[in-house]
Design goal:
551 residues, alpha/beta, Rossmann fold, 22 helices, 20 strands, 38% helix, globular, disordered C terminus
């Protein structure tokens, strides 16, 4: 057996896990791994300008490919900086592997004031990771890095934190490389499947509520088969967009917090089948429906809705078993909800409470310019908020948001990771000017590695949502405006393409040509402050509708 270094053992373990790219920012404690990456040509090492981007890019890669994303950072401040991306990944159950350095082995926990020292740094990420591990010796690396991948992907996918000191990366030993751990699909007991099927067959007005767990399980085809069999309409969460195409005759699109036609429809159901969703506070139904909840995580069953019949299992396998059971019961599809769904869709498309706002026109311009098979990453901006209910997704893993974490600044680096994972697809990033500036230095990363996405920067010169809320609900905006660079010149200074739209409607003419360019493209979209739609008024206790500002 040839002696290898801990860094080489780690990188060879990544190869065995099928890793093709690592997002990182090297530092002194990580040299042993960086040197091993230099020697391994099958893994691309993408170096960012800030640690925050490493985990955002890993998350974007993971959520759009279904494969784990890997981030590499130094200890202490590197982990703190990476935390925003980890929290977003945690909120969207995304399998991100955070590989972090440590201070020298003998000084860990001694508070000697060493470079980047943070005592018990695993505690930094404990609330936003599923598993944390400190490995002290090179021989322990293969077993534990494979465990990290297993933990990230089994059960509810989640970020994990793996750390090791610099000595473990450079010391050489007879290290036994291992194969990845096998991940099996969990299924509920057959008796529970049978009971759930009978509940569904006895329902007068059932509805399916599909979340992001459908896509994470690659269960989209099983969901469509189940829907076609049972004729049960589908509403998705924002994270579940695209799990059933919005063009499907039984799709009602995405739910919306507060009042609205879809919430009314959910409230009128007598049985709700939740698939791969947390049933978060935003998604709660005010009705008295019986809930059947399919989830891989037993802790989520009954977590918010106590009266829930739980099916603990993988979404794909559970939907397959439910379909088989319903067929075994000689199910005859007596439901014919298509007409009612068409009527609801017609009302949604003419609903003045949602349509009589500038945001709808802006979104229409995006619809005309963005290809139907593109991946869209919407930031925490006016267009992002509005897209949750109004943007149509025709395929899984094509609509990416920030989950309940709601991080400003996440969208651009997340989109970079999505594009690296999907080089042959158009990737469109929709940012506000405030959020874009968080990680604007990653224009450098986009240019260096030829990450040719299209980024739209909606530019109102302020934290517009905050300004509007303060002005509308608290008597006046305060310190919400800021000074922006010339975004066109900023892009050009890095070697990217900068374009200035005339107005938000102009993007429909710019985007198709921008996609064809062999460079990263940044579109500055000037806009005025926009009003708050009525249906958003109930999303916070102090909010009230903004009257008199409808166009």
């Amino acid at each position: 057996m040839t002696k290898i270094s801990g860094g080489e053992a780690l990188v060879q373990s990544l190869v065995r896990e099928g890793v093709e790219v690592v997002f990182g920012l090297p530092g002194v404690q990580m040299y042993g791994i960086v040197d091993a990456l230099r020697k391994e040509k099958s893994i691309k090492f993408v170096v960012t300008r800030h640690e925050q981007a490493t985990t955002y890019m890993a998350d974007g890669y993971a959520r759009t490919t279904g494969k784990p994303g890997v981030a590499l950072v130094v200890p202490g401040p590197g982990i703190y900086n990476a935390g925003a991306g980890i929290s977003t990944a945690f909120s969207r159950s995304s399998p991100v592997i955070l590989i972090a350095g440590q201070i020298p082995r003998k000084t860990i926990g001694k508070n000697f004031g060493g470079l980047h020292e943070v005592n018990d740094q695993k505690e930094i990420t404990r609330p936003i990771t599923k598993w944390q591990k400190l490995v002290l010796n090179a021989k322990e690396i293969p077993e534990n890095i494979h465990e990290a991948f297993f933990q990230a992907q089994s059960g509810r996918p989640s970020p994990v934190h793996f750390e090791l000191p610099p000595e473990a990366m450079v010391e050489k030993d007879n290290i036994n490389l291992m194969e990845p751990k096998v991940i099996t699909r969990i299924a509920p007991e057959l008796a529970r499947i049978k009971k759930a099927a009978k509940i569904l067959l006895g329902a007068k007005k059932p509805v399916i509520y599909a979340g992001g767990g459908v896509a994470r399980s690659n269960a989209e085809s099983k969901l469509e088969e189940f829907v076609n069999l049972t004729k049960i309409p589908v509403i998705t969460s924002a994270g579940g967009k695209g799990t059933l195409s919005d063009a499907h005759p039984l799709s009602l699109g995405s739910s919306l917090s507060g009042k609205g036609l879809l919430k009314d429809y959910i409230d009128s159901a007598d049985v709700i089948l939740g698939v791969g969703t947390r049933f978060s506070m935003r998604d709660q139904s005010g009705g008295k429906a019986k809930l059947i909840h399919i989830d891989i995580d037993p802790n989520m069953i009954g977590h918010i809705h106590k009266d829930t019949y739980g099916l603990i299992g993988d979404a794909q396998e559970t939907l397959r078993l439910l379909s088989e059971e319903i067929q075994n019961l000689k199910y005859d599809s007596w439901r014919n909800p298509e007409k009612e769904i068409l009527e609801i869709k017609s009302k949604l498309s003419s609903n003045e409470d949602e349509l009589n706002y500038p945001q709808e026109d802006f979104l229409n311009a995006l619809r005309e310019g963005v290809p139907s098979d593109a991946i869209t990453i919407f930031g925490m901006t006016q267009m992002g908020y509005y897209s949750r209910s109004r943007w149509s997704a025709k395929s899984p893993k094509s609509y990416i948001d920030s989950g309940y974490s709601g991080n400003l600044g996440y969208s651009f680096p997340t989109a970079l990771g999505a594009k690296i994972g999907n080089p042959d697809k158009a990737v469109i990033c929709i940012c506000g000017d405030g959020g874009f500036m968080y990680n604007s230095s990653e224009i450098s990363t986009a240019v260096k590695y030829g990450i040719n996405l299209v980024t739209l920067i909606y530019n109102d010169g302020s934290y517009g949502n905050v300004a509007r809320d303060l002005d509308n609900d608290f008597g006046g905006a305060y310190e919400t405006d800021f000074v922006n660079p010339d975004f066109v010149k900023l892009a050009e200074s890095f070697g990217a393409v900068g374009i200035r739209a005339k107005n938000p409607m102009d993007v429909k003419n710019i985007i198709p040509d921008a996609i064809k360019l062999d460079k990263p493209v940044f579109i500055d979209v000037p806009m005025d402050r926009v009003p708050r739609p009525k249906q958003w008024a109930t999303s916070a206790p102090w909010r009230k509708p903004q009257e008199g500002l409808i166009k």
